[in-house]
Amino acid sequence: MKMNYSYKIILSILIVFAPGIACDTEDLHEMNINPEALNEVNMNFVFTAAELSVASGGFAGDNRYIDWRTNIGYCSYFVQHLASTSTSGLTGSDKYFENNEAWSAPWAFWYGDVGKNLALIFSETGPGGFEEGRRKNTVAASKILWALNFHRLTDFYGNIPYKEACQGTEGVFLPKYDTQQSVYTDLFSKLSEGVSEISTSNDDDGFAAADIIYDGDINKWKKWGNSLMLRLAMRISNVDPSTAATYVTQAVSGGVFSSNDDNAWVPMADGPGEWVNQNGISRAFQPGDGGHSRVMSKTLIDFLKGADPNNPSDVDPRLFILTEGIHGNTNPVDQEGMPNGLDEAGLDVYTGIPNSSPGALFTQVNMLLLDDSDPYQLMNYAEVCFLMAEAIERGIGTVPGTAQQHYENGVKAAMQMYTPLDASLDVSDAKVAVYLAKYPYGGGGVTGGESKLEQIGYQMWVSKFMNWWEAWCDWRRTGYPTLEAVNYPGSGSPGVIPTKLRVPISEAAINGINYDAGATKPDSPVGKVWWDQ
Q1: What distance lies between CA 184 and its chain's CA centroid?
Q2: Tens digit of each residue's pLDDT (9 = 90 or more) over 401-447
Q3: Is 484 within 8 Å of 498 (Cβ atoms)?
Q4: Over the stretch 100-116, which tens digit does the pLDDT of each residue have?
Q5: Cα–Cα distance measured from residue 172 to residue 165, given in angstroms and rounded to the nearest whole number
Q6: pLDDT in tens, 378-391
Q7: Phi/psi at 378 (5° precision)
Q8: Alpha-carbon span 340 to 497, nearest angstrom
Q9: CB 98 within 8 A of CB 525
């Protein structure tokens, strides 16, 4: 059964904050003020808009904007979940071609849309704001959304404008850059504040009606804030294990996700129109709309087929959750993914068939995952389980239970989390048990040679299907799974999977002094952010 929350999402349509290139772009506001117009907006409406926008729901009226360009157009190919023969445009990123739209989209989107809305909430509920002292739960939840928004930005680009970002109304139009380490320090503070400040003892002040993710459930917001804290703590664990240990312990003791019921979903709807409220990932794949190829990568299909590709009993139950097979053929033995890095001529050589058609020859993404009204997932319980298993194995912080328990809970959760997209995408407990018995923790995994940390890494990689930018971050941090880089002539990083997005050309030109002084260098696809060591 599809979720339909159009009655709540429609609230976001009441506010249109036309985003610019970044939050620091000055509006000619004094010339455009209409003295007869409403100039005080309920911040709960702004909060609803921010929630929707976090799910690629509103930038410039295009709810597929960032997914089409970066999540799918870059990251799905970098982590080898999808494959394409294209050598041009965004789909050429299978070969690591550079594209200004793809590397600029997160910067433009999260500064100019989500960040702007959240900054407005903080400003107008703070000292001197027209809602000063009100909306306490809205403000606390906004701090958690802020951490989600800005950890993604800094994970893509490294050093970014942060303390002075989104301060255009304060006269800061060319913000200085902050180091990624200092950004993370503040994000941990934001998450700690958000988790501690959101409370059932606060006056609701309309928060429950405005909240389209958890319907005002304070306990779930606390769990999400702590789960994000756990993610961020493990992300810096290679470069700052002491700080990582502190926040792993704080997050887990405070209460993280404990089942798939806690997963963070943003509801979507079929209407009121094609460009409003619809799932951006789904629309990016729709023929005649986004048009992205649904061809699966050989790397992922080989893993899902199991240790023996000719033995149906070795198959991962997710093979026909994530895919629909090859033109109706759902025999697991027949499934085949396309190698990354092939162009049309290379595909003909690979298949031995002139004018080969990838869509006719290879396994494709399951269209049951791609209805326009499908909810959009931001974070899931499976990731939390895998992070706790890893923390135990590496001795990072204090986590109760055993690594094996958390790993097995993670595999089960990852297999059973797709029913909100379609009720038929169900995996029984019995099937999960068979899989875990076939590939026990510490037993070498699907490939037969995986260490325990590799098993965790491979399973987290599969669990991030459709959340490809986070899968890319996980791979950069852990090195798992083992991926063979594409070496295509003329690409931006031949033979090296990209490890950073370039700062947009417009930002480097307009804010050049601060960019030169503070941006992460080299600012190239092979540059590395602070935690990627």
Answers
A1: 17
A2: 999 999 999 999 999 999 999 999 999 999 999 999 999 999 999 99
A3: no
A4: 888 999 998 889 889 99
A5: 8
A6: 999 999 999 999 99
A7: -105, -35
A8: 12
A9: yes
